[in-house]
Amino acid sequence: MTLYVYLVVFPESVKTPAHWAVLITPVENGKVGQEFQAIGSPFHGYNLEVKEEFDLSKEFKKHSCVFLGSLGDSWKSQLAGVAQSVASPGISSTPLDPFAVRLSYRQRNYLRILFSLLKAELTFIATG
After folding, report:
1. When comparing pLDDT for 21 and 105, which is higher?
2. Is the dihedral of CA 120, 78, 54, 103 positive or negative?
3. Are strands 45-55 and 2-10 parallel, antiparallel or unpaired?
4. Which of 128, 111, 96, 98 is nearest to 38 (CA)?
5. Are 1 and 70 in contact (CB under 8 A)?
6. Most distant CA pair in the chain, distance
7. Which burial class, exposed, middle or buried, applies to 60 when counting CB atoms under 10 A from its CB (0-12, 13-18, 19+)?
8. How many CA atoms lie less than 13 Å away from 13 in the CB half-sphere?
9. 92 with 3: CB under 8 angstroms?
């Protein structure tokens, strides 16, 4: 079985950076799957939130999906652990600055790890 990895982007406004989430589905172009996102605020810090059966079709906020790649289902049990290993930004020293280090910092680091997994998976398939 294959897992499909998407970056879900929730645009905010010109003055506010977009919110990102990672959605991993068992079907191509799927809307239901495991969602990883950082939640919180620059005043209180951020934490990882993992939703096992997130349904994107029930999301009313404007969003777009970007396909990142696919993984073998053997990675499924490891994805939450990988996400938890990424440090979240704490309380911001400049909480009113909309472009200071925020939750997107955490998501970028998680995406870097996911890309390394995707690259490893692609290398394995190619040399298989």
Report:
1. 21
2. negative
3. unpaired
4. 111
5. no
6. 50
7. exposed
8. 3
9. no
The mean predicted confidence, pLDDT, of the chain is 79
CA gap 33, 54 in Å, rounded = 5
Three-state DSSP class for residue 92: coil
Distance CA 22, CA 107 (A): 8
Which 3 state secondary structure label does DSSP give 114? helix
Per DSSP, the residues of 58-78 read G--S--EEEEEEEEEGGGHHH
Helix ranges (H only) for the chain are 76-85, 103-127
The alpha-carbon radius of gyration of the chain (Å, integer) is 15
What the block records as the tokens of 52 is 């096992």
Residues 10-27 have pLDDT tens digits of: 888 777 777 888 899 999
33 HSE (CA, 13 A, CB side): 25
Taking the whole predicted model, whether its pTM rises above 0.70 is answered as: yes
